[in-house]
Fold this sequence. Notes:
single chain; mainly alpha; Arc Repressor Mutant, subunit A; Four Helix Bundle (Hemerythrin (Met), subunit A); 2 domains; two-stranded antiparallel ribbon; 11 helices; 75% helix; 3% strand; globular
Amino acid sequence: xxxxxxxxxxxxxxxxxxxxxxxxxxxxxxxxxxxxxxxxxxxxxxxxxxxxxxxxxxxxxxxxxxxxxxxxxxxxxxxxxxxxxxxxxxxxxxxxxxxxxxxxxxxxxxxxxxxxxxxxxxxxxxxxxxxxxxxxxxxxxxxxxxxxxxxxxxxxxxxxxxxxxxxxxxxxxxxxxxxxxxxxxxxxxxxxxxxxxxxxxxxxxxxxxxxxxxxxxxxxxxxxxxxxxxxxxxxxxxxxxxxxxxxxxxxxxxxxxx
Length: 258
């Protein structure tokens, strides 16, 4: 095979992959928004392929992907059934993204913070018991990166996520470590609401490290709880102010005469 042939095959593979991603994104978004109702049957591959500009094989692979996320259930001779939200893999990053795009911000934000407050204080307590020197050094490096980061930059988000992942890793519980994706989405949403939340909570991160380094599980849990509670309180205030501003803007727009 010459270079031009291999280049063509790579480009073809990329186009197919991009089309596959588009079909997954489009169908997944429609299901989560409720445009495709749970309990009903998904349109057949031929119809979906024609609508979305994709081959039947691409649609078939997309359906398999969505079935893996708990959104669909293929059934022989019956068709593919759209599942209720209780069956969805809500920790899947795609599903999280689709829910964020379709839900009121306040509801999605509240759900994420409730989960974080269940997970992270317990993880901090375990880290105070189990973290080794390398784990604590990683937390310290992440905090140092937070101190020097511009709070309006991607570097701030990356450093903040690195810190929280380091605490999870310090728990030496693999199931807790897997919750990093939830925290990542929570941090991204926090920054979208207001990047000022970064500065508000910065010092609290150091208090968490101090408690973990001192091998004080109860204190570590409390410090993480206070970090999250303070961040949530600040962001709830920002959301309320944003809603008020949006209401004022709507009220100031002249209504068209009927």
